[in-house]
Every structure is written in C-alpha cells, then in structure tokens.
Amino acid sequence: MDDSSALARLDRRVADCRACPRLVEWREEVARTKRAAFADWTYWGRPVPGFGPADARLAIIGLAPAAHGGNRTGRMFTGDRSGDVLYQALYDVGLASQPTSVSADDGLRLYGVRITAPVHCAPPANKPTPGERDTCRPWLVQELTLLRPTLRAVVVLGAFGWQAALPAFAAAGWTVPRPRPAFAHGTRVALDGLDLFGCFHVSQRNTFTGRLTAGMLREVLRTAAQAAGLP
C-alpha cells in the first residue's frame, strides 16, 4: 500500500471514530439543530480528517474543527472565519489554488501542504478537555508517521495545538528537546530534520483584535514553506 492509500485509509478511520462521548453528542447535536444561516445544509457531523496530499512537505496543525465550519463541511478550516483567514494567506504565498474554502467539493487544492488538528471533533465552546486531546492523539501520531518521509516543516497554530503536538512528534519518532520548548508566535525549533514553527491561532479573537495580522501569518507561512523546500 502506498502512502496515499495508507493516508486515505487513516482518514476514513478517523471519520468513523466515536471514542469521546461528550464530543460525539455535541457534534451530532449541532448537526441536527444547525445554524439558521445553514439550514439547507446537511452537516457532516463526524470527526474531520486531515486535508492535503500524502507527500506534503509542510503541515499545519490547528486545534479542532469549528461547530459550524469543519463540522458542517467535513474539511479542516472550511466554512468559517478562521478558515477564511488561513486559506487567503495560503493562497497569497502560493500554497493553495484559491483564496477561499467553502465546501469539500469546491475544487480547492493545496500545494505540498497538509492541514490537520490534534482533536478531530468539534468541541463545545471550542475547548476540548485534556482527556479528549489525549484520546485523539494516536490519530495525529499515525498521520505524522505517514507524512514523515516527506515532511520538512510544521506550523502549529496556537498554544493548545503546540502542547498537543509535541508529544505526538515524540511518539512518531522525532526527538523533542527537554524541557519542551514553549509556544510563542514566530518561534522555530529544529526536530531531527524538521523545522517546527509557532504561530498565533487564526481565531476571530486574534484576527479581529490584530494580535495576528494577515502579514504576520503570511510571514510565518512563507518562512515555513522555504524551510520545507516548497517553491
């Protein structure tokens, strides 16, 4: 089985997961009740797998799907304000085929980039519990293991993702420094041939207040793409 087939199989297994009762109940309740603006949508309502090619040289790790974004569309960072900011920046630096991501069948392609998260289900109030984070970690470990042959750089969005990702990198075979490096925007850590970058999350709280500007995001993505050897 080639890497593409193995990753597709992993994605299907992720989408069938029911390991966390609170998250299962929440994501399915949101899918039933919907938001008025999306009343005509059939919500995905399942765990959201990663998105992007199996031979990605750059990965982006977020937090978890949004209740009316990824939980609705079935694709990471698709259909919400955070995704609007992220995909526009990816397009601006030449890593995405279009600046918007509205549905899983909108034709968007990523160039050498894979987007994933440490928690695959939409959590209440966008806050997974530590137990839910740890239960979901094996999925990220398996995904990183499959990506490892080509992966050269990773951008982690936010402190939660950073704290969740470091143990996953260790479990996938990378040597993580001790003490573990602290999260900060713009930080860069070398892990056995992999450059790890920290970036403030593309949440509305950060983008609306100017804590994370479009220019700041583009700078991190551009630097990470160069480290990954992407054009």
From TrEMBL:
Uracil-DNA glycosylase-like domain boundaries: 49-221
Domain of life: Bacteria
CDD domains assigned: UDG-F5_TTUDGB_like
Molecular function as annotated in GO: 4 iron, 4 sulfur cluster binding; DNA-deoxyinosine glycosylase activity; metal ion binding; uracil DNA N-glycosylase activity
Claim: RNA-binding is one of the keywords in the record: no
InterPro entries tied to this protein: UDG_Type-4/5 (IPR051536), UdgB-like (IPR044147), Uracil-DNA_glycosylase-like (IPR005122), Uracil-DNA_glycosylase-like_sf (IPR036895)
Alphabetical list of SUPFAM superfamilies matching this protein: Uracil-DNA glycosylase-like
Gene3D superfamilies (alphabetical): Uracil-DNA glycosylase-like domain
Keyword field: 4Fe-4S, DNA damage, DNA repair, Hydrolase, Iron, Iron-sulfur, Metal-binding
GO BP, one annotated term: base-excision repair
Keyword DNA repair: yes
Similarity comment: family membership: Belongs to the uracil-DNA glycosylase (UDG) superfamily. Type 5 (UDGb) family.
Database matches in PANTHER family: TYPE-5 URACIL-DNA GLYCOSYLASE
Protein name as it appears in the record: Type-5 uracil-DNA glycosylase
Annotated source species: Streptomyces argyrophylli
